Amino acid sequence: MINNDVLRAIRYMLDLSDGKVVEITQLADANFPIAKEDVQAFLKKDEEPGYVECSNKVLAHFLDGLVFYRRGRDESLPPRPVEKRVTNNVVLKKLRVAFELKDVDMHQILESAGFPVSKPELSALFRQPDHKNFKLCGDQLLRNFLKGLTMRVRGAG
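Predicted structure:
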């Protein structure tokens, strides 16, 4: 999925202001250069003037910051390196951690969006990429997961 779409969906889901998106992004790294104007450019539609593509680096910092924002930071653990490439699988993993979702929650969320998946299908999405049963998360699955999670968080449905 396009990084801008992921950012837009999470921002809507949590009803975050542009300033709050900046704040969350900087929870992962206080020195990360991002401003409200950058967020506004990421949120524009791609045909709008001023649209800027959201880089993997920005989305990775935002997702890491989201985990800290929702769950707090464990100071006893060393900081994890920021993802270089943000795949749909990485987005799914980060959201699962940030929202403290169990397998049962993941299944309910996908089912509520009209996109049920089997237990083996779901666990394959969370395996290491070099594992023989690893499965890439498709755009349709991630889009439906974001839709289902939004319905759960915002209380619709």
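Summary: DSSP finds eight helices and no strands in the chain.
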